[in-house]
Amino acid sequence: DAGVTQSPTHLIKTRGQQVTLRCSPKSGHDTVSWYQQALGQGPQFIFQYYEEEERQRGNFPDRFSGHQFPNYSSELNVNALLLGDSALYLCASSLLDTTEAFFGQGTRLTVV
Amino acid sequence: DAKTTQPTSMDCAEGRAANLPCNHSTISGNEYVYWYRQIHSQGPQYIIHGLKNNETNEMASLIITEDRKSSTLILPHATLRDTAVYYCIVRVAGDSWGKLQFGAGTQVVVTP
Fold first, then answer.
1. Which residue, A25, A39, B15, B50, shows the most beta carbons closer than 10 Å to its own?
2. Contact B94 A97 (CB under 8 A)
3. Which of A45-49, B25-29, B72-76 has the lowest mean pLDDT?
4. B74: nearest Cα among B32, B12, B3
């Protein structure tokens, strides 16, 4: 049973560009959450998707947007990249609110 | 702001028990205590959770004080693979599993 998978594993982008990160949830899970983890800090909640809609959102600007597809997979989009967006982006999946969250290995984004 | 306080770091000898403290003095009656850990370059991994009774699973034990203002995660026989950042999190029952509020955690280093 595959766990949460994220792609790509590493990415380098230039300031001002746009980026799309992808996440496939654990089999049987229907809810996907995204986190940003800066170096040396704990993960910070960005938003959560359920039934193809944004269900909750953390304190992140509108440059951060997402999407969930009918197969429950999800994308995180970040526009107008800033140097401060460099971080590990984590995806977590769960069966709505009934199971613990399982995390993927993350995508390391470097903005130069 | 995170609702928990943990030591920044601690060392433990391989084969010995590791006792990780967490302070959550403002915890509410309907809030659970959760523990996750993050091994370097991986996503966080669920360990255990509890409300007021002590809990044990194949990974660890969780001891919660009677007033619920603090708890201790116990790794009974630490191995080198237990070297990780350990996060103590409080979560309201019924809140989304996906929206977890991580603090800075405790860096645990297990030495031979």
1. A25
2. yes
3. B25-29
4. B12
Contacts of B102 in chain A (CB under 8 A): 35, 42-44
Q: What is the DSSP string of chain A?
A: ----EEE-SEEEE-TT--EEEEEEPPTT--EEEEEEE-TTS--EEEEEEETTEEEEE-S--TTEEEEE-TTS-EEEEE-S--GGG-EEEEEEEESTTSS--EE---EEEEE-
Cβ atoms A49, A66 nearer than 8 A: yes
Are A36 and A43 a contacting pair, CB within 8 Å? yes
CB contact set of A40 (below 8 Å; sequence gap of 6+): B104
Q: Which two tokens stand for residue A49?
A: 């998707």
What is the token pair recorded at A27?
């089999």
Q: What pLDDT sits at residue B71?
A: 96
Q: Which of residues 51-110 of A touch B (CB under 8 A)?
A: 55-56, 58, 90, 92-94, 96-106
